[in-house]
Amino acid sequence: MVMGSCACATHNSVLVGFRDGLAMGLMVEEHFSDNFMYRLGWEATTGEDLSFTNNNPMLFIGALKWRLKNISDTREIWLSAGAVGYTGDSPAVGGTVSLVFEKLLPDEHVYLELGADILSQSHAIVQMGYRFTPSL
User: Does the reported pTM lie above 0.85?
Assistant: First the structure.
């Protein structure tokens, strides 16, 4: 019963952008309240050499997300912070922090994420997301 109610409230999205190279992946978000949620994601990345044969072809994200500000009735800024794990020949685990600009365009499904993954070196995050269901 609990699992069924959680599945109905999730917001799934696809992400495309730059994260240690070109990246594409899926993100699932679940609200705890109007101002707080968790996020789980998976992405495939080309890495810095822009080939899918690099030593970190996939990464996994687990983070919390807090609403910082409502810019207007429709636009919001959120802070996301959590853990990121890179897989491949040289696996690495570190932190991730980003600002998420929700409902960026008139289409409430689109959002922009800007931030960094902090491992042995930092990796910039610049991604656009499209949410299959509107955010709450």
Answer: no
